[in-house]
């Protein structure tokens, strides 16, 4: 019986350990990033911990892993360039608002944490906003696009990506004017990302007189054949608000298998090497950063260390830079949480790796954020078309 | 009508996959009276194995062997790897607990399940892998009742049927099958017949797990996406199918699998995708209330 | 000659009189179920070609003795020797392979399987059932041939007895162990059973029969032992035991 208990405990323990390990720390690679403003104002290197709230494990671990790794890269690049001593504290939220609301207080009570990158989901932002506001903790999301988040309710919140209000009309416009769509099916993922964006696109399409049908799927759904069976012959575009590009690819493949004529248009969550079906479309809040000369170094460094990436990583890099820049501005040895959060909206990154300058409105949105649309060519790589 | 036929094909394909997983549950329950909650992960490992074999052979873009050979290799590798994994799990997570309480191996199974999910995450990362079947196997399939049926689905369905028929023959007609049934019915009496019960259990685990591995490759070929959490939901559905059909009954597992697959397919099309899983589990509850032993579950024959 | 009562404390290796060689030998067996001392210093021999019976009342350890011989129960001290080989630490499957077969208490058939399948299972250690063995079983039990496709659990007690015996024969055992073959059978069936057992014995199968029905057992046995609360209290030839006063009063009702 003793041996049996030991085995049981060992099993559970190693299970837990691996779960923790899977999101564990690895030394970050460094790259030559564009010069950053800020360092320490005195001789001592500026020190502070940056919380990263992301779905590190769970069904969306593909996203969270990429976000975390880009954050790590940003920190090591910034430290190398500016002699600072920033570090990362992980906060695994599994993209769940409830879980996020338990992670936030942990980060708040950890005095070393002076700012947060994330959370990834709009629903999560809403659940942690008040706690971070109370604690004067700045939090910059790389992927929460729900427009209402910057209506003023969360004074310490900012984001480095455009909102649903920008992506929706941009995509809808393209579908109508360039693809001539009269009938569109929106396949919507049941997440806060999918819901908000789908509504924005639907509204924009309907305003242009397009017949829109919305179908909901769960992020964990393995089988799109039943969904595709509902797409009829005169639907020209299937708009997929997915966060996992491999799912978008599966959707496109299934459409092909059932000989449907509709082409797939993936929202920014699908921008990734995982969605590489020729003839399909995808939008992104940045051009392919591998195509931007000043961003190539970062892209190469990431690929060398961690492999392929999609759309969720590069904005996380920029969000982390924002926090560090805000923290280092008045830093005397140890960064200060309150000072960091009051500096965030004043941060300016003229040539961010996203290919556009980062400055903020007083509500926390990026000024003049644009959306880019790509078509996937026969070489299975996206090419800019707008 | 077209939608109906399409959904029928989808449902049968999905049903075949669930049936194979359910068979694994039922076989193991038969000989050990244990619900092997790690079975879903064995299926997941099979799916990954098939993927890596495919990539190793140049797929999905440039296979270095004929496609049919690549697919055969994927299946064989997955079945062997999954089979061995199952044998390992029995040896290290269940056998030491044989003399323990009924619940100890169940908890161990949950632990193994967690362990494998995260081990795969740690080893291979969180990125979803795609079998991307259309890249090496495109082409429209035959027409059935006015609907174009995808050939990959036909292969999967046929293979599932072959495996199920093979298993049934193994259990009903061979000496080993008799030994399996003897161990399942009365382990002590089986020992008295000179049966090495451990050997039988190991072989049952291998067979059950190999079936799950095959199911993993099938899912990859038909539904493309493979990730480390896919075993959780599939395992749950397979377990549901086995219980609905009557745990311990082989035809029951096949019927249960088919039923759950068809329910999911038709619900997604005619109601909503949201309800597909919900309905399957509702059916489980209904069957448990009305026929607790499952649809084909037999009344226990009293040992005389 | 009068039957010898077992001298207290003596651990004799018992042997049949005459030139028979021992097939099964239990020496100095002490078996415990937890703290309970079930078998105390048991010594027992079955010679080749012998039919030996083990008598005693309820819960005296008779079944445990059989199980010890088979390997289903491990003794704390003592040895089990079969056909000259020490099998004390060997698993049951090996002992069955070496030539033991058992007709368990209450038959223990595989109820959901057919009669034929039950017989086929009996041949497990031979690899595949030999048609010759099946023929022999059907010769002895013609009824089974008729009912070969019937589900075993639906047979009557007497029919199940036949299947159980046939099943044991399918492995061509050198030693058959029977645990209370008369249990649950009507007197007529009991007589029939024992006739069959005698037939098998004459065919050359050695036997160890555990029985409460001492009359029937002694009527076909060569030798016997009497077990009382885990100790052998009497041993001798069947004739001697039948004539023993105490035994007659206690077990034979005369």
From TrEMBL, chain B:
Q: What species is this protein from? A: Terrabacter tumescens
Family to which this protein belongs: Belongs to the binding-protein-dependent transport system permease family. LivHM subfamily.
**Location (main, coarse):** membrane
Q: Name one Pfam family in it.
A: BPD_transp_2
CDD domains attached here?
TM_PBP1_LivH_like (cd06582)
UniProt keyword terms in alphabetical order: Amino-acid transport, Cell inner membrane, Cell membrane, Membrane, Transmembrane, Transmembrane helix, Transport
In Swiss-Prot or TrEMBL terms, this protein is called Branched-chain amino acid ABC transporter permease
Classify the protein's membrane topology as the record does.
Multi-pass membrane protein
Q: Does the keyword Transmembrane apply?
A: yes
TrEMBL record, chain C:
Q: Which SMART domains match?
A: AAA
Keywords associated with the record: Amino-acid transport, ATP-binding, Nucleotide-binding, Transport
Stretches assigned to the ABC transporter domain:
24-254
Establish whether keyword Glycoprotein is in the entry.
Answer: no
What are the recorded GO MF terms, alphabetically?
A: ATP binding
Which InterPro entries does this UniProt record tie to the protein?
AAA+_ATPase (IPR003593), ABC_transporter-like_ATP-bd (IPR003439), ABC_transporter-like_CS (IPR017871), BCAA_Transport_ATP-bd_LivF (IPR052156), P-loop_NTPase (IPR027417)
Domain of life, per UniProt, equals Bacteria
CDD domains recorded:
ABC_TM1139_LivF_branched
Which family is this protein grouped under? Belongs to the ABC transporter superfamily.
PANTHER family membership: HIGH-AFFINITY BRANCHED-CHAIN AMINO ACID TRANSPORT ATP-BINDING PROTEIN LIVF
Q: By what name is this protein known?
A: ABC transporter ATP-binding protein
Query: What species is this protein from?
Result: Terrabacter tumescens
Q: What is the lineage of its organism?
A: Bacteria, Bacillati, Actinomycetota, Actinomycetes, Micrococcales
